[in-house]
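Incident review: delayed structure delivery

Summary: a single-chain prediction request sat in the queue longer than the usual turnaround. Root cause was a stuck worker, restarted by the on-call engineer. No data loss occurred. The affected request and its eventual output are reproduced below so the record is complete for anyone auditing the incident later.

Affected input:
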Amino acid sequence: MSKSLTGSKIAILVSNGFNQQDMTDTQKLLTSLGVSLKIVSPDQGLVNGWEGAGWGHHFAVDQQLSTSLGADFDILVVPGGQRSLDKLKTTAHTRRFVNSFLSAGKPVALFDNAVDLLVYAAQASGRTVAAPEEMQAALVEAGAVWAEQSPAIDGALYTGRVANEEERGVFISGMLDFFVSNATLERQAA
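Output delivered after worker restart:
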């Protein structure tokens, strides 16, 4: 299974205040499989994670969002974290970057409340999504189809609720299977 992702280029889109555990659990799993992970951010230098009830660790930014292109990556991962999402929604570069993946049919995984970026990028309409209950009304109003089951897969989009460790484990395990399936389909189409 891991050979299917070897050499894949994955962008992790974050800003200060992202859910640190979403990112670090994803990093640990994917780097062990031989993928190239790059932290893409509108912030310069370092980004600060959010862990529990306070600030977490700092992580080096690999690429500036303003100069990053979706064409340079195979997969997009966006951890949850309201502070991060609020900052990501202050720049049109976020919309451009997210849209480039969705338009190209590249795999996109949105943790928990990161599904809000679909609304910001005007990409929610017609997509089946799983997200925190408090987001249901806004997503449905934007044209999304609400999924009771989490995680949800809609083409190359993978979304889900991640309110606790068990849900995070299920989400990340399913995300890996989702990425491998998409990589296999892409190779078969080539």
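Verification: The chain has one domain: 2-189.
Action items: add queue-age alerting; document worker restart procedure.
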